[in-house]
Fold this protein.
Amino acid sequence: MRCPYCADATNRVIDSRIGKDGAEIRRRRECVECGRRFTTRERVEEVLPKIVKRDERREDFLREKIVAAVRKACEKRPVSADDLDRLVDRVERSAQELGEKEVTTRFVGERVLDELVLVDTLAAARYASVFHNFQNSDDYAAFFRKLGEYER
């Protein structure tokens, strides 16, 4: 780790603490050369698969896109920001645990839909209407019939 002040590579760790969320380590360091102190943070590098779009293009896995879609589906619904974060975490983890280098948008979309059904049925219907491209009320009726079969 290079000192941000003098760019020297020799420094020592003065203090280490676990970050607020428990996912990072905060280290207080002191440069041996100039004596100034600085803070570094260590975090596990997560390897997420590439997303294969319907037209076969490949994109990076962008959590922000999932968050935006789920937030839009849950607009004006009694779903907390924490619930949304946990939902997106579960979707992200399922893509990671698959162990593949690439996953399809269909896989991600279905995981989001499965999770939304558990959080808020109406938000799930909103999401499904875009994801499955509902054209009329029959599509909604089929969606709710399918949900009814799961609850039995």
Summary: The chain has a mean pLDDT of 91.
